[in-house]
Amino acid sequence: MSTHSITKRVSVPELRARKNQEKIVALTAHGCAIARIIDEHVDFILVGDSAAMVAYGHPNTLSITVDQLAAHGAAVVNATSHACVAVDMPFGSYQESPELAFRNAAKIMSTSGASCVKIEGGTVLAPTVRYLVDRGIPVVAHVGLMPQYLNTMGGFRAQGLDEASAQKIIEDALAHEAAGAFLLVLEGIGEPLARKITNMVSIPTIGIGASPECDGQILVSEDVLGLSGSKVLRFVKQYLDGEALIRSAVGQYAADVKSGAFPEAQHCFGIKAAK
Question: How do 116-120 and 183-187 pair as beta strands?
Answer without folding.
Answer: unpaired
